[in-house]
Amino acid sequence: MQTESAERGDNLSASAGPGAWQLRWVELGVALFLLVVAGLVIKDSLRLGIGWADDGPRSGYFPFRIGLALAACSAWLLLQQLLRWPRLRSRVFAEGAQLRDVAAVLLPTTVFVAAIPWLGIYLAACLLVAWFMWRNGGYRWPWLVGLPLAVSVSLFLLFERAFTQPLPKGPIEHWLGF
């Protein structure tokens, strides 16, 4: 007889291997994070003003209500999590191999975003595409140079020329006079 978890097709009830994250800690962390975000939204909305002015709602009117809704949902999640805490002891959110797969995408993407102010979005995108082609696709050098350059040039033509929407540029674009 299959368990409810196995019928759904998830792996939440598997035994925890090395580097596994327990589901209860992840759920608790998400609920607390969302509660903090809700608090920041509410605080900033109060700073902007949450009432009505002569010409309509003030800037913080709608964000304040969204912050309240987010806080209520977060508090509900937190309460549910604390009530189910003992039953979730053996539930696994993700194992080490799954977390490594996520990190294999998340870390290069984080480096990409951090590099944009210095390299510009086009060079950073070129390097990111080349990295994923090399690391995950196993492509050889002609493809690792040609396709990322084609992607970056296409993005440049699309945003800078067709849409006339400038994106962050780096030293290469400035050197070329853009």
From TrEMBL:
<feature type="transmembrane region" description="Helical">
    <location>
        <begin position="21"/>
        <end position="42"/>
    </location>
</feature>
<protein>
    <submittedName>
        <fullName>Tricarboxylate transporter</fullName>
    </submittedName>
</protein>
<feature type="domain" description="DUF1468">
    <location>
        <begin position="30"/>
        <end position="168"/>
    </location>
</feature>
<keyword id="KW-0812">Transmembrane</keyword>
<feature type="transmembrane region" description="Helical">
    <location>
        <begin position="140"/>
        <end position="159"/>
    </location>
</feature>
<feature type="transmembrane region" description="Helical">
    <location>
        <begin position="62"/>
        <end position="83"/>
    </location>
</feature>
<keyword id="KW-1133">Transmembrane helix</keyword>
<dbReference type="InterPro" id="IPR009936">
    <property type="entry name" value="DUF1468"/>
</dbReference>
<keyword id="KW-0472">Membrane</keyword>
<dbReference type="Pfam" id="PF07331">
    <property type="entry name" value="TctB"/>
</dbReference>
<feature type="transmembrane region" description="Helical">
    <location>
        <begin position="104"/>
        <end position="134"/>
    </location>
</feature>
